[in-house]
Amino acid sequence: MPEISRFLGIIIAMYYRDHRPPHFHAKYGSYEIVVSIAEGVVEGRFPRRALQHVLEWYATHRQALLV
């Protein structure tokens, strides 16, 4: 798994040549979500607090992810 960040037990990964639209995966224990980079749309289930941390990370790194 091409991990790009790890914090508070959350793993953020992006897969080379994965399906469109551009997105990243976040894993936390047995939970997994997919977050659209352009729109921030989340698919999947995550504990509320962990989701808040992922969305904060996304907001901080969004411009770098778009490049």
Structure report:
A hairpin with a 2-residue loop joins β1 and β2 (about 10-15). The chain has 1 helix and 5 strands, in the order βββββα. The chain has one helix at about 50-65; strands spanning about 5, 10-15, 25-30, 30-35, 40-45. The longest helix is centred in the last third of the chain and has 19 residues, at about 50-65. With about 70 residues, it is of the alpha+beta class. It is globular and about 25 Å long. The chain has a 5-stranded antiparallel beta sheet with strand order 1-2-3-4-5, with no helix packed on it. It has one domain (about 5-65).
Strand content: 35-45%
Helix content range: 25-40%
Structural class: alpha+beta
* Chain-averaged pLDDT: 93
Oligomer: single chain
Number of domains: 1
- Computed CA radius of gyration, to the nearest angstrom: 11 Å
Globally, the shape reads: globular
Number of alpha- plus pi-helical segments: 1
Low-confidence stretches: none
Lateral arrangement of strands in the main beta sheet:
1-2-3-4-5
Written as H for each helix and E for each strand, in order along the chain, the element string is EEEEEH
Total beta-strand segments:
5
Q: In angstroms, what separates the terminal alpha carbons?
A: 20 Å
Quick recap:
This protein is 28% helix and 37% strand. With 67 residues, the protein is of the alpha+beta class.
Helix and strand arrangement:
Blueprint: E1 3-7, E2 10-13, E3 23-28, E4 31-36, E5 42-45, H1 48-66
Antiparallel strand pairs: 1-2, 2-3, 3-4, 4-5
Question: What are the key terms here?
Answer:
globular; 28% helix; alpha+beta; 67 residues
